[in-house]
Design goal:
Jelly Rolls, 10% helix, globular
Length: 203
């Protein structure tokens, strides 16, 4: 005997279970109210506006970084970002100390023509994955970034498009997440905003 209503209830139950499972394990990296759990290095300006983490150059075009006190090794990270271009910023990960770690860049500068936001930079090596798909970057709006770091495998999905899929063994231990503001007059007026930052262990 066919029972459409019963089938619909079963389907909704399965979908609901799947959504709940997918949502499990996520933790906020930024509370939208303060910089609690973060430490600043350098002289950039970091503040909270309208629930968003905002970074700008300091006096005289000064640079700086903002790092999490917590560390992770294998993880999935999500956030929304937007930037006032031209600029050079990004999300650091697996940062274990000075001159260590990787970065998903938010970038638009003449010294790297054609290398777009979503590219992956490795300290000591330069870019190890270059995004050249302009359709993957909303220059004048918010961008949805998803980063997965598992072992030596780094994957970046931006606005639903896979823009980096690379393996690298330079930094394998636990490290901080971070945000960057680059120095220089070339980026005068640069502003980066992030919201919805959350992380969970990669499985």
């Amino acid at each position: 005997m066919h029972c459409p209503q019963l089938n619909r209830r079963v389907l909704l139950g399965v979908l609901g279970s799947g959504l709940a499972s997918r949502a499990a394990g996520w933790k906020r990296v930024f509370d939208g109210k303060s910089l609690m759990g973060w430490r600043a290095e350098g002289n950039a300006t970091w503040l909270v506006e309208r629930g968003e983490l905002v970074g700008r150059q300091g006096a005289g075009g000064a640079e700086g970084d903002l790092f999490t006190e917590a560390t992770w090794t294998d993880f999935e990270f999500e956030c929304e970002w937007r930037m006032r271009f031209p600029g050079n910023s990004g999300v650091w990960f697996r940062v274990m100390g000075p001159r260590t770690g990787y970065q998903v860049d938010f970038i638009d500068q003449p010294s790297h023509p054609g290398v777009l936001s979503g590219s992956v930079y490795c300290m000591g090596k330069a870019f190890i994955a270059e995004n050249r798909n302009r359709a993957s970057v909303h220059v004048d709006g918010w961008n949805m970034l998803r980063l997965r770091m598992k072992g030596d495998h780094i994957m970046v999905v931006q606005n639903g498009i896979t823009v980096a899929d690379v393996r690298d063994t330079a930094f394998s231990g636990p490290g901080s997440l971070g945000m960057q503001i680059h120095k220089g007059k070339a980026f005068d007026g640069m502003e980066v905003r992030l919201r919805g930052m959350r992380i969970r262990e990669a499985v």
